[in-house]
Structures are given as structure tokens and as C-alpha cells.
Amino acid sequence: MELTVLGKYGPYPAENDGACSGYLVENKGSLLVLDMGSGSLGKLISRVDIRDVTDIFISHHHYDHTSDLLPLRYMLEVSGNVVNIYTKHSDSVWYKILFTHPNFNVINVDEGSAVKVGSMELSFVKANHIDSSLAVIIKGEKTLCYTGDTDYFEGISACFERSDYVLADCCKPSGDKAKHMTVDDAKRLAEKYPDKTIIATHQPPEFNPVNEFASFGNIIIAKQNKTYRL
Fold first, then answer.
1. CA 5, CA 90: separation in Å to the nearest integer?
2. What is the pLDDT of residue 190?
């Protein structure tokens, strides 16, 4: 099982080609894209043929996780393939703009859903960010959880207890009041689950948590364009 970081920044890109949230999971020949923030589409097609992309999970509907779905629609019109998109339904204008397209097969999921994507099994955990937020647990050769954007709350424990690796929104500096996990939350979780590997992502362009995590062997800061063998 492999995880490629297409983009890791939020809520906007970093300079010098730093893309927003987007990830590619590969397991026994099956592909799953996680989110499509600004700049992630170009990274994706530099790695795989768009005609091989059949399944995308969208963790929530903020722009820095969804904006490259719009140019993706043009690519799909040319290639002719239809992509399954797994996301939570939202009665919003942006949901309708994003997902109303003949090359998107939208499958609305929630925390009770279970989905099979090739050789991977997907289940979902409610995240604490906005109403449409879900974390996804991907069971393949290993088990990976992607938290999407979330604040720290007791329910996030399910992501760690059911997974070997957690791709976690946990790069905000100490004291940040936005609905994201901070570096302090990451350290608390690393101490609580020492046998789990945390891949820290959703990094603000102005802040590098490398010093914060230096003494934690089970926290890795996500590196854009890097592929991790899980």
C-alpha cells in the first residue's frame, strides 16, 4: 500500500508550486484519490493516467480541498471516463456547483456507510470541522485513516484505534483557534498511540512544525511529491 502526497498545504497554496490538500492511495493496482485542492490535479496526472482514476473521496467541501474538481471535469469530458466521488451530502450552492456533472457519479456517504473500491474497503468517521466533514478509514494491505480537516475531539480516537497510519490535519501552531488540530494535539495523540504512525499534513504555508515534532519518532511531516510505502 502506498500513499503519495500531491499537496499538503491549507487553506491556500505555498509559494514555489506548493499545492493544497490532495493525496493518492494505491493498493494492489487499485487507486483512490483523497481530496483535490488547488494544484493537486497537475500533480496527480504527472503520476497516473487520468483514465485510471475511477474513485475520489472528498472529505468536506471547502475550496482548498475541492477546487481542482472543476478543471478535472474538462479532462473527463475529453477522456470520456466517469469518476465515482464519495462525499457527504450538503444542501449548499457549492455542493451543486461541484458535483452536478455527467462525468461525476456522486455517491453520498456518512459515518454509517461502507464502500468497496477495488482492493480497498472504506468506512467513515464523523470529523469536527463543518457539517460535510468526514474522515475515511481505508483498509488494504495496511489500514490508513485520513482525517480530513478536524478539530481535536474524543471521536478522533476511532481513526487511531482502527488504523496503522493516520494522515492527520495537525500542523496548526499552538493556540490556534481554528477548527483544526494543533501541534499540541498531534503530540498528545502520538503519546497516547505510540504504535501508530502519524503523517502530519494540512500545513499552513507560513509555519513549519519540524521543531515541534523533532522528539516524536512516530510523527512524520508530510512531504509534497513523496510516496510513502505503508
1. 27
2. 98
pLDDT band at 14 (very low <50, low <70, confident <90, very high): very high
Instruction: Give me 146's grid cell.
Output: 485520513
With cut-offs at 50, 70 and 90, classify the pLDDT of residue 19. very high
Task: Provide the sign of the torsion angle of the four alpha carbons 213, 221, 38, 25, taken in this order.
Answer: negative
For 177-196, the DSSP string reads -SSS-BHHHHHHHHHH-TTS
Single-letter amino acid, residue 22: G
β-bridge partners, 201: 169
Q: What is the pLDDT of residue 169?
A: 98
Q: For the chain, what's the residue count?
A: 230
In contact, 40 and 22? CB cutoff 8 Å: yes
DSSP secondary structure letter of residue 74: H
Distance between CA 127 and CA 60 in Å, rounded? 9
* pLDDT at residue number 219: 98
Rounded Cα gap, residues 90 and 227, in angstroms: 32
